[in-house]
Amino acid sequence: MGLENVQNIVLVLSGKGGVGKSSITTQLALTLSLRGHSVGVLDIDLTGPSIPRFFGIENAKVTQAPGGMVPVTVHPAHTLAVPRNTTTTTTTTTEKTEDEEAETKQEQEQERHVGALGCMSLGFILSARTDAVIWRGPKKTAMVRQFLSSVLWPPGLDYLLIDTPPGTSDEHISLLETLLKDAVTSARLRGAVVVTTPQAVAVSDVKKELNFCRKTGVRVLGVVENMAGFVCPNCSECTHVFSKGGGQVMAAEFGVPFLGSVPIDPAFVLLIEEGRRPVYPKGTVVVEGTEVGGEAETKDDDEAQTTTRDPGTLVEKYTACSLFPLFDGIVGQVLENVEAGP
Fold this sequence. Notes:
The protein has 342 residues and is α/β, with parallel strands linked by helices. The protein has one domain (6-340): Rossmann fold. The chain contains 12 helices and 13 strands. It has helices spanning 21-34, 51-54, 98-108, 137-150, 170-180, 183-188, 200-216, 246-254, 266-274, 301-305, 314-318, 323-340; strands spanning 6-13, 39-43, 63-65, 68-70, 72-75, 78-83, 109-114, 117-121, 157-163, 189-196, 220-231, 238-239, 258-264. The strands form 3 sheets. Strands 1, 2, 5, 8, 9, 10, 11, 12 and 13 form a 9-stranded mixed sheet that branches. Helix 1 packs across helix 12 (323-340). The longest helix has 18 residues, at 323-340. The chain is globular. InterPro entries: Mrp/NBP35_ATP-bd, NUBP2/Cfd1_eukaryotes, P-loop_NTPase, YlxH/NBP35. Residues 79-111, 290-311 are annotated as: Disordered. ATP binds at residues 15-22.
């Protein structure tokens, strides 16, 4: 089957739609790549395949090869210079020579080996982005199995993240039946990251997903509480739009790790939708305890209105996002839980 080249398989699950599974999957993939791992993303949300849009490669098409389909490349393995401290930007009024500025910049940056990232989604196969997928259960099941058996992931792929639709229906059953019936892939299925939002109605549905994991024997690597607060970029006031702490309470109730709370960051939305590099007014605090932004990073109104994509790759621009340090910590916990075993 097509998974023999994959070393570790991680599912991204939720019993509730609209909680941001694809957003979480995208940031987990980018962060794993920035840690030097080669990563694949398989999107089996067949009726709402959004992964191509998140990675900015909607116009890409799948290449057929002997034995199956070649995943679409988001970026190859490469080396990237990133700031040593990605959470705080400081400014100085002291004048420096060009040589001194270059030396300071070199000291503030470090080279990172970025692992290759590729993905596969039904979105690459549909003739138009707005096409509706009107399939009964058996056809969905067949498509999931084809994705699992026919995608030619590169040899030695470190992590395959599987973005799933909400609920516990046909796609999930087909996915687990296919993975668990083979001894090799069953051993490489490390577990699931479960996504929720803080409010009670979402937590109630996501509890069903945790029960699904218990009944099917899927290990829960941790719970991520998404959309946990919105920090206004103008006044820095945090508003808990969807309440607070529901995901952490649920994780404690089920005895599974709590990976962290992820706030809403409008700059990340602009990065995905318009390709803009994240910038923040000086003093903005999106993630508690870390300050981002600086006077040199602000843009005037005319520039803010443009939809021209900023130069650079998605992964490179993501290092300027306030959520990157947060996801670096979340991914660190996931890797520790994977290495710890059952």
